TrEMBL record:
This is Argininosuccinate lyase. SUPFAM superfamilies: Periplasmic binding protein-like II. Keywords: Lyase, Signal. The lineage of its organism: Bacteria, Pseudomonadati, Pseudomonadota, Betaproteobacteria, Burkholderiales. InterPro entries: BUG, Bug_dom1. Transmembrane segments: none annotated. Gene3D superfamilies: Bordetella uptake gene, domain 1, Periplasmic binding protein-like II.
Length: 328
């Protein structure tokens, strides 16, 4: 027995659908109504973590809800990025994605458990910075050419540390070896702090890392810096030549990173986050830290960030292929 005529039933269904859509739209307009989690796929105290914490604080003030940093380091950023990709696309879990997790890993791992372009939604670029080449204080060389000369005289004897296989530091080291025709021993670490600790302690010869992670050790005189990987000098290390200036013409590795969300996060939430991030990057505390660490904080549209990722994947894929590096 049919209680409602078919047309009446269809009208009721349409009303419920419209009410549901209106409810969802209202929820997105009122977002956020509780704290937002920001997954950082690196350990606490790492370079990305140091730079992101004031950004998270400023972003929380812009959104009117706390933004809580959740450090999930491991496996070249894969652990945290996989967790982010699997999170509910409701805006309450966002994360940090960078050159490694969004570009390099695509070529380094044949079975990457997430797709940088399909599993995640770009929100805004946030930071970019150069890397620096440092050495233990008693290392026989004090500049890039000295390192190259020593490595050629002692093939396979110079140890080069990095923040894990497939990190930007690892590939920068592979590029250094490839372009100078030297053989050096790559030593991957679980964290930049461990690698720097071994540089300070004399157990590791050299390493490449971002400025934010090693600047305190350079300033305290615990390590010596040989060169920067950008084409222009790092402002806070203006007396340090670039690798390009040191004879490796065109050598450039600049790390970048931004805020991403799980794929499927509603566009109104993405847009609101994008506007809030742009304002957060102008916060006085953020500007002061970025100036101190020579970090460039430049926001972007979601589309511009997506375009950067799309262009960097093949670029670094070619570098991975050329270097012969692999995490499998």
């Amino acid at each position: 027995m049919q209680i409602f005529p078919r047309r009446v039933g269809q009208a009721i269904s349409l009303c419920f659908a419209l009410l549901g859509a209106a409810g969802a739209g209202a929820a997105q307009a009122d977002w956020p109504q509780r704290p937002v989690k920001l997954i950082v796929p690196y350990v606490a105290g790492s370079g990305p973590d140091v730079v992101l914490r004031p950004i998270a604080d400023a972003l929380g003030r812009e959104l009117g809800q706390p933004v809580i940093v959740d450090n999930r380091g491991g496996a070249g950023g894969i652990v945290g990025t996989q967790a982010l990709a699997a999170a509910a696309p409701d805006g309450y879990t966002i994360g940090f994605g960078n050159l490694v997790t969004l570009a390099i890993n695509k070529s380094m791992y044949s079975k990457l458990p997430y797709d940088p372009q399909r599993s995640l939604a770009p929100i805004s670029l946030a930071i970019s910075n150069a890397l620096v080449l440092i050495a233990r204080n008693d290392f026989p060389a004090s500049d890039v050419q000295g390192l190259v000369s020593y490595a050629r005289q002692h093939p396979g004897k110079v140890s080069v540390g990095s923040l894990g296989v497939g990190s930007s530091a690892h590939l920068a080291g592979e590029m250094l070896k490839s372009e100078t025709g030297t053989t050096m021993l790559h030593v991957p670490y679980k964290s930049g702090q461990q690698a720097v600790g071994d540089i300070v302690g004399g157990q590791l010869d050299v390493m490449i890392d971002n400025v934010a992670g090693v600047l305190p050790f350079i300033r305290s005189g615990q390590v010596k810096v040989l060169g920067a990987t950008s084409l222009t000098r790092v402002p806070v290390l203006s007396d340090v030549p670039t690798l390009d200036e040191s004879g490796l013409k065109g050598f450039e590795v600049v790390s970048w990173g931004g805020i991403v969300a799980p794929a499927g996060t509603p566009k109104p939430i993405i847009d609101k986050l994008n506007r809030a991030i742009a304002k957060a990057l102008q916060d006085p505390a953020v500007l002061k830290l970025n100036e101190t660490l020579s970090v460039d904080a430049t926001p972007s549209t979601p589309e511009q960030f997506a375009s950067l990722i799309a262009s960097e994947i093949p670029r670094w894929g070619e570098m991975v292929k050329r270097s012969g590096a692999s995490a499998d």
